[in-house]
């Protein structure tokens, strides 16, 4: 009996797609994934080129005394606008196919990025290589217009990013294994493209100037939009659960977009509040605030504030910040790949978060580099290499945390406790809003410290130590302490935290139980047949 049960269990385990590492995607799912990933790669190319160009444009055009104060404020507005974009797009996803809304949104995004090119050209701006002195020649437009343009592009960006988080369910359905493997596959291609695009952006800025270096962005966005129109999503897979607000149709008139939009803002605020209550009312979740929101803020700050400041004030060339960001993107790629490869061995987010906490202290090297670095591109590459382990730790922690949050909140009591909002959506809304608030406020405030340091001393060595090394070390201690809060987290590599085990263990247990039940039923059937005189033939 034991032999039969064990053999049956092993046979069933060998058929599981996760064990083999090859999800059982259908032919249509593979086709749609290929189309979607191709579009994502073009989207990432355009996004990195635009972000690099507008960041260096702001760095060069804002007044020296307020450069990084304004840069931080502009980035904060951009990220706040992303939330608005997500709310604006939510009712549309409920009415039209996701692929149509996604493709249309990216085409709108391309128009927003074209706006700055038109403004610069119409006010006398020229490409760098066309000027006699081979220097950037800007138009006569007011640099503060960057705030307006960056905010508009943030609205479009938020639309696209929200849909990107919903459409995987439309493509492969609700199977968790398929979803996680698809997410990992998409993320790997996304970061490969991001690394190449960031480095290419530096070359484009050097060649054309940061006022025209993103001329390819509208082209790449348009190609991505056209590609996404060919995603063929089965009607049965249409899904809007990822929006975080459930049963919206019960509360609003589907024929009135304005009413839907109103309720969208109301429900977003409600989601943030519910997320706050969930996070800070339980030991199971309170550690997610430093582990997710704070870690995400630090990652954005090291890319969007420290990299441009180091490139501009230490290396003397703002375009080289994209080389540093390229190193960061490569670190993210390695982090996501590590989670993908070691998912069966590192089954909780805890080890990755601790690695992230220790890696944050590497930021101290920026202050040291500022004392010895020369104004040559080699130092940009060295600094980019320094960013690899920093972003590795963050990406690994982020990927594994997302899986943990989803596994805890998408099932059980939390999934049915709240009638108006999704518990999963509420927690993610609160964590993301917390990150945006921290980034919007601290990026501008700490940017002032960098500006004042440069005005007073002609360098930013002191500010790199304070807003870089000291800030990151304090946060690393907070994150490290937070990793010991959940139950069962004191082990070096916990097998489970808060009673939550990894998906493979749960599946194996369920598979074993099903095998035992099947074997017992078979035994009863044979025994009953033998008593009746009708024993089954061998």
UniProtKB/TrEMBL annotation:
One of its GO terms (molecular function) is transmembrane transporter activity. It is found in: Cell membrane. It is a multi-pass membrane protein. One of its GO terms (cellular component) is plasma membrane. The keyword Membrane applies. The chain crosses the membrane at residues 101-119, 188-206, 212-231, 257-279, 285-302, 323-343, 421-442, 463-485. Keywords: Cell membrane, Membrane, Transmembrane, Transmembrane helix. Residues 518-538 are annotated as: Disordered. Residues 518-531 have a biased composition (Basic and acidic residues). It holds the Pfam family MFS_1. PANTHER family: INTEGRAL MEMBRANE EFFLUX PROTEIN-RELATED, MAJOR FACILITATOR SUPERFAMILY ASSOCIATED DOMAIN-CONTAINING PROTEIN. This is Major facilitator superfamily domain-containing protein. The lineage of its organism: Eukaryota, Fungi, Dikarya, Basidiomycota, Agaricomycotina.
